Give the backbone structure.
Amino acid sequence: MARGDFNLSSDIDVIIVSDRLPTPPLERSRFLYRYILPDIEPKGFLPAEFMRDQARQNSLVLEALSHGILFADNGFWAEIVARR
């Protein structure tokens, strides 16, 4: 959606980077899907995971860095962008 190429069958990926997310992936997924509206696909990362996946050239992370729309930041995002 942020790139402007969405259509009726598109969903919206929302990336949440927080050290307050549950660590186990299944528990994290359950937590995120509890609060999500239809057609929204939450992706949760701990800050260290996001940085690791950036270094590994994870396509979702790179897409977020290139085309993402920032909703809130406690300084983490500014730090990541400054490293690029």
Q: What stands out?
A: Strands lie at 12-17, 40-45. The first helix runs from residue 25 to 34. Helices lie at 25-34, 47-55, 59-67, 76-83. The chain is about 45% helix and 15% strand.
